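Summary: Need help interpreting a holo structure output

Steps to reproduce:
1. Submit the protein chain below together with the SMILES for pyridoxal-5'-phosphate.
2. Request a joint structure prediction with the ligand placed.
3. Inspect the C-alpha cell block that comes back.

Expected: a single structure record containing both the chain and the bound molecule.
Actual: see attached output.

Input attached:
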Amino acid sequence: MKIIRDDLVGFKGYHVDDIDAIKLDANESPFPLPDEVHEKFLSWCRDHNAYNRYPDTDCNELKAELAKNYHLNVDQFIIGVGSDQIIDFTLRLCIKPGEKVMFPNPSFSMYKLSTKLNHGQPIEFALDDSFQYNANKIIEFMNKVNPKVLILCSPNNPTGTTFSEEDFITIMESVKCLVIMDEAYGEFMNFSAIRYTNKYKNLLVLRTFSKGFGLAGIRVGYGVAHEELINDIEKAKPPYNLSTLSEQLASILLRKKQFIDNNVAEIISERNQLYEKIKDIRGLKVIESKANFLFVITKDYDLHGYLKEHGLLIKTIDNIKGYYRITIGTKDENEVLLKKLMELGGGMDDTTKLCGTRNQ
Ligand SMILES: *Cc1c(COP(=O)(O)O)cnc(C)c1O
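--- attached output ---
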C-alpha cells in the first residue's frame, strides 16, 4: 500500500547543503546577537522557570512590541514559526483542492512546496528579461488565470529585485484575491506594504526575524494585515506554535532594534560595494539588489562548485543552470569571496582549469 499521496510521490522536499565553509548560501545575518541582548535574554531565563507551562499561544508580548514598533494595533499581527509557517497555514485556510496560487519565477521555492502540500495548483509568472516585476503583465495574466492567492516577494528571493509603491498600488487596485506580500528582506529596502494593511483588507504582509534581525536559529516570523483578515488566519494557526524562548528573545531584540539598524546599514554598504566590483568581472552578470544577497548569472563557470572548492558555500537556483545567489557576509568574508571571483574572471590559471570549473 502506498503511504503518501499519489501526487507527492516524485516530490522533493526542502534540502540544504551542510558543509564546513563560509556560509553565503542561506541569506542569514553574519552577525551574532549583540552582547547586551544576549545578557538580557540569559537573565530572563535565570528568572523564569515555568517551562512546564505551554507558551502564550497568542504571543501577546511580541505582538505588543511589534504594534509599538509599527504604530499599529496588536490585532493586526499573527506570529509563526518562521514566516514559512504562516505561508503554509494561510494557504491551508484559503485553498480548496485544485485552486490556483500564483507567484513569480524565479522566486522562493517554499511557495510551490506549500501550494502542493496544501492541494493547490501552483501557477508561475515570469519576471521580465532583467528580472524585474511588470505590474500590468501580472494583472493581465491574473485575469486569465484567476488565482485564489497571489504571492509577491519584494525584494524577490533570489533576484533582489523589488516592487515599487506605484506598482504595488496598481496591483492592489485591480485584484480581488488574497495578496501575500512577502517582505522577508524588508529591512534592506525603504518601501513596505505594511502601511497599506488598513486600506486593503485582502493584503497580508509577511516579515521574519531570520534575515535582517539575525535570528534564523529561533524561527520567528510574523504577518501583518487588517484585523479582520488576521482574525480569519488565526483559525488555521497551530496552537502554541511559537516557543516561550523564541517569543522572549524576539521581544527583547525588538526593544533594542538600534543594533539591528546598524547591522543592516553595514550589510547594505557591503552589498553595494560588492555589486560594483562583481559587475566588472568578466563572465559574470550581477543584478542590482535591494536585499542582503546578490543574484549572479554566468554561463561560463560552475560558480557553486568552484567556490565550494575554495571553502565558500553559495546557493544554486533549482533547475536553472547558471543562476546563483550569494549572501552578503562580513567584510572579511566578502573579501575572500571577491578575491576568488576576481581570480575566476581575470583569466584562469591552469590549476583552476584542471579542477574543471569551466561548465561546458
Ligand atoms: C527566508 C525567507 C522566508 C522565511 O523565512 P523564515 O525563516 O521561515 O521566517 C520567507 N520568504 C522568503 C522569500 C525568504 O527568503
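--- end attachment ---

Reviewer comment: The pocket of pyridoxal-5'-phosphate is lined by residues 27, 82-84, 108, 153, 157, 182, 184, 208, 210-211, 216, 221 (CB under 6 Å). The radius of gyration is 21 Å.
Status: needs-info
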